Amino acid sequence: MTPLYARLVAATRAGLISFRTVSSFNLDEYVGVAPQSPGSFHAYMQQHLFGHVDMEAGRARIPDGTADDVAAEAARYEAQIAAAGGIDLLLLGIGANGHIGFNEPGSDFASRTREVRLDEATRIANAINFPDPASVPERAITMGIATILEARRILLVARGPEKAAAIAAAIEGPITAACPASALRLHGNVDILCDEPAAAALTTRPHNNNRRRA
Asked: Among 147, 124, 198, which residue's Cα sits nearest to residue 28?
Protein backbone atom coordinates (compact mmCIF):
# COMPACT_ATOMS: atom_id res chain seq x y z
CA MET A 1 0.00 0.00 0.00
CA THR A 2 2.98 2.31 0.40
CA PRO A 3 2.87 3.73 -3.18
CA LEU A 4 -0.86 4.43 -2.83
CA TYR A 5 -0.34 6.19 0.48
CA ALA A 6 2.40 8.29 -1.13
CA ARG A 7 -0.06 9.43 -3.80
CA LEU A 8 -2.63 10.35 -1.15
CA VAL A 9 -0.02 12.37 0.73
CA ALA A 10 1.01 14.16 -2.47
CA ALA A 11 -2.62 14.94 -3.32
CA THR A 12 -3.17 16.31 0.19
CA ARG A 13 -0.10 18.52 -0.02
CA ALA A 14 -1.26 19.79 -3.41
CA GLY A 15 -4.61 20.77 -1.92
CA LEU A 16 -6.53 18.31 -4.10
CA ILE A 17 -7.97 16.31 -1.20
CA SER A 18 -8.37 16.68 2.55
CA PHE A 19 -8.55 14.20 5.42
CA ARG A 20 -10.03 16.67 7.92
CA THR A 21 -13.39 14.92 8.12
CA VAL A 22 -12.12 11.38 7.48
CA SER A 23 -12.30 8.66 10.12
CA SER A 24 -10.07 5.63 9.63
CA PHE A 25 -10.20 2.07 10.97
CA ASN A 26 -7.16 -0.05 10.25
CA LEU A 27 -7.71 -3.69 9.40
CA ASP A 28 -5.31 -5.19 11.89
CA GLU A 29 -2.45 -4.99 14.38
CA TYR A 30 0.02 -7.46 15.81
CA VAL A 31 -0.66 -8.83 19.28
CA GLY A 32 2.02 -7.86 21.79
CA VAL A 33 3.58 -5.12 19.67
CA ALA A 34 3.57 -1.62 21.17
CA PRO A 35 2.27 1.23 18.98
CA GLN A 36 5.69 2.93 18.98
CA SER A 37 7.48 -0.23 17.84
CA PRO A 38 8.84 0.08 14.27
CA GLY A 39 7.09 -3.17 13.35
CA SER A 40 3.62 -2.06 14.42
CA PHE A 41 0.93 -0.96 12.01
CA HIS A 42 0.53 2.12 14.20
CA ALA A 43 4.09 3.11 13.29
CA TYR A 44 3.70 2.14 9.64
CA MET A 45 0.56 4.23 9.18
CA GLN A 46 2.06 7.20 11.00
CA GLN A 47 5.18 7.03 8.83
CA HIS A 48 3.44 6.61 5.50
CA LEU A 49 0.09 8.39 5.84
CA PHE A 50 -1.25 9.76 9.11
CA GLY A 51 1.83 11.85 9.89
CA HIS A 52 1.58 13.67 6.56
CA VAL A 53 -2.11 14.47 6.07
CA ASP A 54 -4.58 16.78 7.80
CA MET A 55 -6.60 14.12 9.63
CA GLU A 56 -7.92 15.36 12.97
CA ALA A 57 -6.51 13.81 16.14
CA GLY A 58 -8.44 10.79 17.33
CA ARG A 59 -9.96 9.94 13.95
CA ALA A 60 -7.35 7.30 13.10
CA ARG A 61 -8.20 4.08 14.92
CA ILE A 62 -6.08 0.94 15.06
CA PRO A 63 -6.61 -2.11 17.29
CA ASP A 64 -4.55 -2.12 20.49
CA GLY A 65 -2.29 -5.14 20.21
CA THR A 66 -1.04 -4.64 23.76
CA ALA A 67 -4.50 -4.91 25.38
CA ASP A 68 -4.60 -7.20 28.41
CA ASP A 69 -7.85 -8.73 27.15
CA VAL A 70 -7.52 -9.18 23.39
CA ALA A 71 -11.05 -10.55 22.98
CA ALA A 72 -12.47 -7.49 24.74
CA GLU A 73 -10.34 -5.22 22.54
CA ALA A 74 -11.67 -6.94 19.42
CA ALA A 75 -15.25 -6.48 20.62
CA ARG A 76 -14.54 -2.83 21.45
CA TYR A 77 -13.18 -2.28 17.94
CA GLU A 78 -16.28 -3.80 16.36
CA ALA A 79 -18.42 -1.51 18.51
CA GLN A 80 -16.39 1.52 17.43
CA ILE A 81 -16.96 0.68 13.77
CA ALA A 82 -20.69 0.29 14.35
CA ALA A 83 -20.87 3.54 16.34
CA ALA A 84 -19.20 5.38 13.46
CA GLY A 85 -21.93 4.19 11.11
CA GLY A 86 -19.89 1.48 9.45
CA ILE A 87 -17.18 1.78 6.81
CA ASP A 88 -17.78 3.65 3.56
CA LEU A 89 -14.64 2.53 1.71
CA LEU A 90 -12.41 -0.34 2.76
CA LEU A 91 -8.93 -0.57 1.25
CA LEU A 92 -7.51 -4.09 1.08
CA GLY A 93 -4.36 -5.85 0.04
CA ILE A 94 -4.16 -9.57 -0.62
CA GLY A 95 -1.69 -12.14 0.63
CA ALA A 96 0.00 -14.65 -1.64
CA ASN A 97 -2.19 -17.29 0.04
CA GLY A 98 -5.35 -15.27 -0.60
CA HIS A 99 -5.70 -13.76 2.86
CA ILE A 100 -7.41 -10.40 3.35
CA GLY A 101 -6.71 -8.50 6.51
CA PHE A 102 -5.12 -11.28 8.53
CA ASN A 103 -7.92 -13.71 7.70
CA GLU A 104 -5.84 -16.72 6.71
CA PRO A 105 -7.09 -19.63 4.58
CA GLY A 106 -9.78 -21.51 6.48
CA SER A 107 -11.24 -18.38 8.07
CA ASP A 108 -15.00 -18.45 8.52
CA PHE A 109 -16.85 -16.03 6.24
CA ALA A 110 -19.00 -15.13 9.28
CA SER A 111 -15.96 -14.10 11.34
CA ARG A 112 -15.79 -10.75 13.14
CA THR A 113 -12.85 -8.81 14.55
CA ARG A 114 -10.84 -11.27 16.61
CA GLU A 115 -7.41 -12.64 17.52
CA VAL A 116 -5.88 -14.95 14.91
CA ARG A 117 -2.74 -17.02 14.44
CA LEU A 118 -0.65 -16.03 11.43
CA ASP A 119 0.54 -18.55 8.87
CA GLU A 120 4.29 -18.97 8.59
CA ALA A 121 4.22 -17.68 5.00
CA THR A 122 2.44 -14.52 6.15
CA ARG A 123 5.03 -13.91 8.85
CA ILE A 124 7.85 -14.31 6.34
CA ALA A 125 6.16 -11.92 3.90
CA ASN A 126 5.79 -9.30 6.66
CA ALA A 127 9.33 -9.61 8.00
CA ILE A 128 10.52 -6.44 6.25
CA ASN A 129 9.67 -4.33 9.32
CA PHE A 130 11.28 -6.75 11.78
CA PRO A 131 14.88 -7.89 12.38
CA ASP A 132 14.10 -11.35 10.96
CA PRO A 133 11.07 -13.59 10.25
CA ALA A 134 11.32 -15.17 13.70
CA SER A 135 10.66 -11.73 15.23
CA VAL A 136 7.32 -11.31 13.46
CA PRO A 137 4.52 -11.94 15.98
CA GLU A 138 2.60 -15.18 15.68
CA ARG A 139 -0.75 -13.57 16.47
CA ALA A 140 -2.70 -10.49 15.43
CA ILE A 141 -6.05 -8.75 15.84
CA THR A 142 -7.88 -8.47 12.52
CA MET A 143 -11.23 -7.41 11.19
CA GLY A 144 -13.17 -10.54 10.31
CA ILE A 145 -14.44 -11.40 6.86
CA ALA A 146 -18.02 -10.52 7.84
CA THR A 147 -16.77 -7.18 9.16
CA ILE A 148 -14.99 -6.52 5.87
CA LEU A 149 -18.03 -7.46 3.80
CA GLU A 150 -20.18 -4.93 5.68
CA ALA A 151 -18.19 -2.06 4.14
CA ARG A 152 -20.25 -0.19 1.58
CA ARG A 153 -17.47 -0.24 -1.01
CA ILE A 154 -14.23 -2.24 -1.18
CA LEU A 155 -11.06 -1.56 -3.16
CA LEU A 156 -8.47 -4.33 -3.33
CA VAL A 157 -4.99 -3.43 -4.60
CA ALA A 158 -2.46 -6.05 -5.72
CA ARG A 159 1.03 -5.61 -7.15
CA GLY A 160 3.65 -8.10 -8.31
CA PRO A 161 3.84 -11.65 -9.66
CA GLU A 162 3.73 -13.20 -6.18
CA LYS A 163 0.05 -12.14 -5.99
CA ALA A 164 -0.95 -13.62 -9.37
CA ALA A 165 -2.16 -17.01 -8.11
CA ALA A 166 -4.16 -15.40 -5.30
CA ILE A 167 -5.82 -12.91 -7.66
CA ALA A 168 -6.77 -15.69 -10.07
CA ALA A 169 -8.17 -17.82 -7.23
CA ALA A 170 -10.12 -14.89 -5.79
CA ILE A 171 -11.69 -13.91 -9.12
CA GLU A 172 -11.96 -17.15 -11.09
CA GLY A 173 -11.78 -19.94 -8.51
CA PRO A 174 -14.52 -21.28 -6.26
CA ILE A 175 -15.85 -19.11 -3.45
CA THR A 176 -14.27 -20.95 -0.56
CA ALA A 177 -12.64 -20.42 2.81
CA ALA A 178 -9.47 -21.84 1.24
CA CYS A 179 -9.14 -18.44 -0.48
CA PRO A 180 -10.52 -15.78 1.89
CA ALA A 181 -10.40 -13.12 -0.84
CA SER A 182 -12.95 -15.10 -2.85
CA ALA A 183 -15.54 -13.95 -0.28
CA LEU A 184 -15.37 -10.52 -1.91
CA ARG A 185 -17.45 -11.90 -4.78
CA LEU A 186 -20.36 -12.06 -2.34
CA HIS A 187 -20.27 -8.29 -1.88
CA GLY A 188 -21.34 -6.63 -5.13
CA ASN A 189 -19.42 -3.35 -4.86
CA VAL A 190 -15.77 -4.35 -5.10
CA ASP A 191 -13.06 -2.98 -7.38
CA ILE A 192 -9.84 -4.94 -7.85
CA LEU A 193 -6.89 -2.88 -9.03
CA CYS A 194 -3.80 -4.83 -10.02
CA ASP A 195 -0.76 -4.44 -12.22
CA GLU A 196 0.03 -6.73 -15.15
CA PRO A 197 2.19 -9.17 -13.14
CA ALA A 198 -0.54 -9.58 -10.51
CA ALA A 199 -3.13 -10.21 -13.25
CA ALA A 200 -0.95 -12.63 -15.20
CA ALA A 201 -2.68 -15.84 -14.06
CA LEU A 202 -6.20 -14.72 -15.03
CA THR A 203 -7.52 -16.92 -17.82
CA THR A 204 -9.99 -14.32 -19.08
CA ARG A 205 -8.47 -10.90 -19.55
CA PRO A 206 -10.78 -7.92 -18.98
CA HIS A 207 -11.11 -5.53 -21.90
CA ASN A 208 -11.99 -2.32 -20.08
CA ASN A 209 -8.52 -0.87 -19.64
CA ASN A 210 -7.41 -3.94 -17.66
CA ARG A 211 -10.13 -3.46 -15.05
CA ARG A 212 -12.54 -6.06 -13.78
CA ARG A 213 -15.45 -5.54 -11.42
CA ALA A 214 -15.92 -8.18 -8.73
From this structure: 147
